[in-house]
Amino acid sequence: MWGTTSHASAISTTSEGARYLKDNYNTILKDAKTTTYKDARTGRTGVLVTGIKPGSAANDFGIRPDDVILAITGSAVRRYLQGRDELPEKPLVAAVPVSMRAAGDASLGNQVANMSVSLATHLERPEERLLAISRSAKAAKAVIYWGDETGISNQDQIGRSWAPKGQTPVVRRTAKRASKSMISAVSNRGLMRFMFYDGALNVDLFIAFLRRLIKDAEQKVLLIVDNLKVHHAKKVMTWVTNHAHEIELFYLPSYAPDHNPDEFLNCDLKQKLRQQPQPGTKDELVKMTRTVMGAIQRSPQRIRSYFTPATVKYAA
Description:
Blueprint: E1 2-4, E2 9-12, H1 15-29, E3 32-38, E4 45-52, H2 57-60, H3 65-83, E5 93-99, E6 112-118, H4 126-141, E7 143-153, E8 179-187, E9 192-197, H5 203-215, E10 221-225, H6 234-242, E11 247-251, H7 262-273, H8 282-297, H9 300-304
Parallel strand pairs: 7-10, 10-11
Antiparallel strand pairs: 1-2, 2-4, 3-4, 5-6, 7-8, 8-9
């Protein structure tokens, strides 16, 4: 039996797991920080994996304690199936619980889903199996965002109006134009990030947004964007390559805005802004927009609803 907490992972040294620990300690657990414990209720002894040793090969590859536990489990299953001459050619896959709770979310209730991780049971060498499991877990944990840019203005058309028959409807508004640009990204996990900027998006602004996107992410980020020239810029590609362990860029087909869930965020934002008093200055416009975006950001269910229309259901 084995289990995980936010700080450590454990496997009880019984049956097949005990034999595997004994036979493969030097290859699997050599880079792990471990301590033994005894269950007061059952009397069983176990090994607690509390971390990965700094400077070790496992640490260099970014292997986590849970990866070690999966490697032990997968190897025990491999040995068991080998003993029965039933080991399949393709690797077995484990359903592993993963938290869906956003950073800083202290709300009550469970926010848990399953991710599929390869146990690499087709690989013979334990160290190769551990590395393959670590790579599979990282890919499964990656959060996928869809990104887009939009402009906001106090001169946007404000709903419908009316006028006597034969006369043109007139909507009175301030004569001073105020506008701001915004880049945002949404995830089907109910996450959303955004950043304001002035004028048109350039390479430095886009990289600044990418930095912010990965700053508070606890897993790798996969960002899907359209084919705007800035998104393909050489400087952007170089930066992404240098941060390949944290983020990757992917692109929507050309002329396919209806397949981008972030477009539904833009639509939702502008509908909400039209319900607010008209801002007279750029500062008022930004403050109002930030308030609306903050309310949306605190509603994961609302963000997930952007993935329900037929054209974006593929991303749900």
